[in-house]
Amino acid sequence: MIADIIENIQKGGTATVEDVHTLLSATGDDMEALFQAARDARDSRFGKDIFTYGFVYFSTYCKNNCTFCYYRRSNGQIDRYRKTVEEVVQLSGALQDAGINLADLTMGEDPRMYADDYKLLLETISSVRDDVGISIMASPGALPREMFPRIREAGADFYACYQETYNRGLFESLRLEQDFDARYGQKIWAREAGLLAEDGMMIGLGETRMDRADTILKMGATGAEQIRAMTFVPQEGTPMQDNTAWDSTEELKAIAIMRILFPDRLIPCSLDVEGIAGLKTRLYAGANVITSIVPPNKNLAGVAQHELDIENGNRSMENVFNMLEDLGYRRAKSSEYVRFLDSKRGV
Ligand code: SF4
Looking at the chain, which terminus has fewer C-beta neighbours within 10 angstroms, N or C? Predict the structure, then answer.
């Protein structure tokens, strides 16, 4: 049954939500066949080339109160920081010099960055464009529709905003006081403004397997050029801190299914869930981008794992590049990444 569904997709057939649900239930040899099909799909489209993204979490302040998030406004236990424009430029420059393909400029929904008509946010993006020239992903939270042309004009290539789940009821219980449709619109409005878009799902937040199947198909249907799945890690100081942590099996299956359904998309292997230990399994499931590479000794945090593998250097550029080579992959050059982005923008 699972083999039939995979074969149908490989031959260009469509998958129903029931098909995706069945694929998500794969175990044992069926699961291995799913991973193999995903690797084949990736290798025939991208070869052994893997793109690399650095993570610059430049403000950990946030006005929101998402129940799953360490940085929610009610979490009083944490030391927050906000990097200056100069610091963000310097960090992005170091990523560029190391051969990283893109700087992911991420922040919580920080009112200071939004003040004066988004002055500091736009200045941060345009300074990285002007002074560094690395490809840029902007991840600044949910913005009004009219902001997207301005984000593009400031120099961003990508806009990332994860829905986490397409189950509306679940969304409302997680992303408190936030609007499902406005968040969905972010992906659409970004693409209308000439940005590429990223959508993402989180696994282990209370969703059913059918919810996951539905979310995979709906993320694909947005047209987002990058789609991701990440396993929820319970965070101290949040209402979900005592939830049971899942292993990464469901995430790996979601990555593999996204790959066979949407073979030309960018699908990340995030180091933010299991640190460097999770690299091999995610590449094995069909990922073709490594995200959340974080240089050590820069006082930078991750999102899902705010400390894991950062200060010990395991998420550094050098370590990731060495591991890629050991696993038989090649890190793509930035010129190759820019060519890929241009092909997606129809340049
Ligand atoms: S998930 Fe994002 S928007 Fe929600 S509290 Fe965390 S940083 Fe803020």
Answer: C
